[in-house]
Amino acid sequence: MKPNLIDRAIAPFAPGLVASRMHARAQVEILARLPELSALTPTTNMTASADGSGDVNGGSSSGARRWWKPRARDARSDTLPYLRGDRAASRQLARTSPIAVGAINTNVDRVIGTGLALSAEPNRQVLGWSVEQALAWKQLVQNEFSLWADSTECDIAQQLNFYQQQGLVLRAVLESGDAFTLMPDGTRTPTQPYALRLQVLEADRVGNPLGQVDTPTVAGGVKTDANGAPIEFYVYSQHPGGFLPGAGSPLAGEWVKRIGRSGRRRILQHFRKVRPGLPRGLPYLAPIIDSIKQIARYTEAEIMAAVITAYFTVFIETPTGNTAPVFDGTTPGAAGAPNEVGLGMGAVVGLAPGEKVSNTANPTRPNPNFGPFIDAVIKQMGMALGLPTELLVKQFASSYSASKAALLDAWVYFRNVRAWMAISFCQPVYETWLAEAVAIGRIPAPGFFADPLLRWAYTRASWPGDSMGSINPKDEVAAYSAAVDARLMTRERAEWELFGSDWNATFDTKKSEHDRLKAADLLPTPKAGAAAPIAGKKPADDTKENDDAA
């Protein structure tokens, strides 16, 4: 350990202080290297093999684990020391790697698409409402929410509406592991009666104050209580990676309470918790970062090799020994004069006497094994990302059944992420907005602030999104129609899943179309063999039919 510039400056006046400083730095360096040293130190007893060869297996029954001695650590120790590098690598791949870009875009397009829409579902049994009352209140709430959510004024930067911010949050979580949403109060305007604003923060904006080391209660900028529940987040005033001169320390900020004194949420953390005690999220690409980078390098090398192979260069040895290009129209230089010689498209290069071309481009390029090898690696990446290969590479070259199975398998994953997105972002924002709407009198909700059960009943909602898509629309529409006729599915859900539209929102248009067609005598003719509807006769009651049959 050598003294630095400051140590040398104060050494003549305070040698004891210099010694203390150097001792402290040495301790910090040793602590930083403890994980590496522990990984290199055998943690199990070394025993001789049964054949007397002295082979050591470290307590494992397989020789494959001979030198592999992982340590059992908690979630914080396994992730936080490497999280900063993983975030940077993940975001760089999300900008430059086709595989990474495609995987993240596929997630955002399929999970969010045009946005998860509010479908208010107040619990009318708890509220004591009739069906008509529930429908009227639902329509009022959805209209008011659209007034706020459809406008970019809900964004503190006034750039994105609520549905676009959903895509931003999911993309930030996939790239960085987690994201945060501040919910400050803005200024009400003549066009926006609500003060609630949203500010999405990248993961790097939350960290320990001034970069301090983690403590039992503070880790990764998250302060927890004795039970491990987050109570505060330390938010930097600026992004640590975008330090500007004169703006102060990039690691300075303030603590923001998760829940304010009034019980209102002030900040949301969005991440998928995969281990108990995990304070921060892991990037979506974390398991395959190294593989993607190696594939990118391999792809670049193969492309360069193919480009070089495509060059056609002729080397000519001249009696004068001029190494300048032969047909470039320039004056030849002196014999033996050094010249830059390189490959080019249709280039003709002269060589000095005795010089030979010892290595030319390999004519076997492009590599015929490049495609199969890349496909095999991408299949493994798809398994790690939860995406079928067909969806990851956007190529459905298999049979109809295989393509359908791939879409269904992917939809299980997308539906899971969509449900998480609704719980983590959409529902908390909706509940916060509804509380403000009730408080300022724009939404009637008696007992909303007095009874937690009534508040729960008012805030029930679902968040449907775009449909899965269809390979064979005719068969799928027939299947949904049969499910609706059999009372196994509502028309509202069927329309959401088939077309991604709200049955209630399109009902008036459908009724108007039906009335106009009926007035013009243009209603569809029943198909051959189908029973014609009897005008003025209502369907028989199921109970009455059963009684008659008995």
UniProtKB/TrEMBL annotation:
One of its GO terms (molecular function) is structural molecule activity. Residues 526-537 have a biased composition (Low complexity). NCBIfam families: portal_lambda. It holds the Pfam family Phage_portal_2. Residues 43-72, 522-550 are annotated as: Disordered. This is Phage portal protein. Residues 538-550 have a biased composition (Basic and acidic residues). One of its GO terms (biological process) is virion assembly.
